[in-house]
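User: Can you write out an input/output pair for a complex, sequences first and structure second?

Assistant: Here is one pair. Inputs:
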Amino acid sequence: MSFPRLLVVDDDPYLLLALRQTLELAGYAADTFANPLEALAAVQTGKRDFAAVLADIRMPGMDGMTLLAKLKGLDPDLPVILITGHGDVAMAVKAVKEGAYDFLQKPVDEETLLGALTRAVERKRLMLENRELQARLAASRAERSAFYGLVGAHPAMRQVYALIETMAAAPDPVLISGETGSGKELAARALHALSAAGQPFVAVNMAALPAEMLESELFGHERGAFTGAESRKPGKFEFAGSGTLFLDEICSLPLHLQGKLLRVLEERAFSRLGGNALIPLQARIVSATNHDLEEEARAGRFRQDLYFRLNVLPLKIPPLSARKEDIPLLARHFAEEYNLLHAGQPVLLPQNFLDRLTARSWPGNVRELRNEVRRFCILGEERQVSLSPLPLPDGEPESLKAHMEAEEKRYLLTVLGRFGGQVSTASAVLGLSRKSVYEKINRYGIDLDSLRQS
Ligand SMILES: Nc1ncnc2c1ncn2[C@@H]1O[C@H](COP(=O)(O)OP(=O)(O)OP(=O)(O)O)[C@@H](O)[C@H]1O
Ligand SMILES: [Mg+2]
């Protein structure tokens, strides 16, 4: 273990010697200088790491105050303790204001000296440790390839992670924009995890409900507010509590509700339909759009004032085509996700498959990529279209329509069979709505029950 090294400056050679002896006995290494300029040069060369400086205030050539200023310029973390004569207290106080760590009065009492030095050295150690920690954190941030469920190491995604982190600290509304399937909801959830973990995350899709229902869904209603309102029902503003209210597809919010939402944001309060009581809005509003909302506002399809209110903190998610380097990483992530859920041989993605994925354009973004990888995990290469001619079955060749239907039924059976007849999983893999999957099941007379049992 090495001793903490001190820099000691005093023009009085006897005092300097006495100080050095005291310090060395106490376990320090001391570099002593009678000339402040030489002392400064010793720090400037950077050859030695000093844990602290002990300096007289009154010296010829350069006084302690000037030395202090110069030392701070070289190394702001280096603690400087000044030694003052009897009449210099005012100056010492000024020195502390200007960044000296402490001051000691002559004659210097040994215990006070060593006490001050222990604290100064400890402080320097903590500062260094903190600086290293910060540097390590910054480095790990710059290297990370995933962030609260978002996968991606592309600089554009890392910037998204950094922005989410910054935005988490503020309560203001966030507007997330990006193409369909690019990860807007995932980003909203990441923001929530960082800012309101443990609180509710309530998502409402503005496009999914007719206007009247949407209004009562958001605001809630009192009993008898409208025909059919048989009991009081809290709305999403209320359910979100002090968590996050995620307003998805905000563009589809009907105009009269845009006005109402604006008022809620301005007053930070709302009332249930048919009620008067004002309830404070505590949740953070995060909205999402895959349209250019600014353009919509300019074209008069969205209220400009509401746009400004929602867009206090804008978060843009780049389309997958702008971060193609992440495609193999994402594909492997989705294959792993599949492997975790399914027993048996884990699926490995061959390089030529990854290359093909990377070369494609992805209008459906990460969602489309995920579906493609899942199809591969389930069906493997058998899905790869072969362009070599198929042998014709005996007898009359069938029509294309009949052939396609037979093919469709076979594929549907394969996928449903693989998932034990679970329509929701199969529909995700097939890229179809559950409704269309059920229609096809009926059309082809597929027996779901027997698939579920086998
Ligand atoms: N960076 C990512 N890492 C891992 N999975 C992702 C990423 N981005 C999106 N996904 C996945 O892709 C799918 C779509 O993501 P999400 O629902 O967040 O997209 P979106 O932008 O809200 O789409 P839409 O506009 O259609 O609502 C989800 O299954 C999600 O988990
Ligand atoms: Mg979404």
